[in-house]
Amino acid sequence: MKHKDFVLHLIGEAAHFMLDSDPMRMVISLHQEEDGLHLAILDDTRRGEAELQRIRTDLNNARRPELAGYYGSMAGSDVLGSARLNLIGWQIKHADVSATDSGTRIDLWLGGDRFNPAAFSIPEGTD
Amino acid sequence: MIWILILAAGVSGILIGGRSAVTGFLSLQYHPARLLQDFAASVGVGGALLNAGLVAALGLGLVHLAGIQLSGPTLAAVFTMFGFGLFGKTPLNAAPIIAGVAVAARLADRRFGEYILIALFGTALGPIVSLVAAELVPGGIGLATLAAILAGLATGVVLPAVAIAMLRLHQGYSLYNVGLTSGMVAVFVAAGVRAAHPDLPPVGVWDPAGTPVLEGAVVITSVVLVLAGMVLGGHGTLRRTYGLLAFDGRLPSDFCDLASVDAALVNMGAMGIASWAVVRGLAAPMNAAVAGAVFTVIGFAAFGKHPRNSWPVVAGVILTAIVFGKPLTDPGVILAALFVTTLAPVAGQFGPVVGILAGAAHLLLVLQTGAWHAGMTLYNNGFAAGLVATMVVAIVEWYQANVSQRDRRFTR
Questions:
Q1: What is the pLDDT of residues B300-320, one digit of tens each?
Q2: N or C: fewer beta carbons within 10 Å in chain B?
Q3: What is this model's ipTM?
Q4: Strand partners, A41
């Protein structure tokens, strides 16, 4: 596994966020490609459109290298207070947030400049 | 606008000091810088202002060169560099440390911009460079300068690794993370230096009178920031500034992003005026160290501090000083009353009572920690506060996991 510690921190923070809403079910799925990886987190918590939009905003925030390289290292390493998705957002390429039939799905795309999420090999509709 | 403020400080220094400002500035480059130095008392306020302006210009120039936007954290870094340029940082003792962090970035295959905050705040260890250049190495200025540069480079290289580890210790509840970082590094350096030089003399210059020029600089900067925020934001600025008070301030809280640039500027000015009022209220002198502390508070008012999360920790320091009979004008007390605002997120997250207790613990600790590192880090308060925040986090975390949620705990 490439960048194991980095991935572990991202999974930790994302799971922290999902667990804040006390779900009965949470699934974490990781798929690795040559130039990047896809992390999908699903739970059974239904969220309104306003909250989904807030999550999208936090995860797709502006590029802040000075925060990503330093404070981004806090992702997944603290348990006090609420989860902070902006710590993840500074470090990933892109995030999709959507409502599923039973809850919420967050897709995180990580990778180098050559990585193209659109060409990723995960079959459509995989939950 | 920040360039204008820095330029104004440097030009004021030359206008006030004339030729002696330049000679004073030059002499500071080979001047001992360990805590607690008052550059205004040592070489005159003109030379101190010129030095502070150039140190801040170095920081702001690097921010621009690295292609990093000027926002909450970078404003905090530049104001902190200016403030400590009045009592410890010089371009000569800062540059090798910054270069060392750049080397670390290269080793980690990262862009310098990713570590720029560590580099700028890491100049707190400038006294190590000055110690080697001005106090330890005999044999001429050339050899001393080379040895000092190497010491600074080595110090800078280790900073990112330690800074990231320290961040996870207190989980962002102390805003001066590099304070804890540099304290850790300085304790080891001091141990090594004392092994070779057991009779390392303490240094210290504290001006009990203060200077009206620095008081004017604090007040004018604060008023300019408030006015700039009001002009920039227009109608609604005060409402946005009030909304900013809802944030707990935990790292990283960039108020320029979370609230707005105009609200952040007004908050910076308001915190400057509030800090000035605290100094006045305690009848403390506005000397270089105190003015440096106020400028640091102003900078961090764009990155975590505001009146609502700051007052409890300040109250904790003042009440504890009164309880233990310490004079409120004592250098350690007045500096702690200003720099303790690094613990503002503790009050912001856990409430004013925990904030007051944290402030009390901070004062008791900070009066001891200076001796641990022999003044080799300028962020002595940041070091002590980082330890306090780590203790608070450990206790609260244990309490939440084992006491308040014990009915939800799984047992084997």
A1: 999 999 999 999 999 999 999
A2: C
A3: 0.88
A4: A28, A106
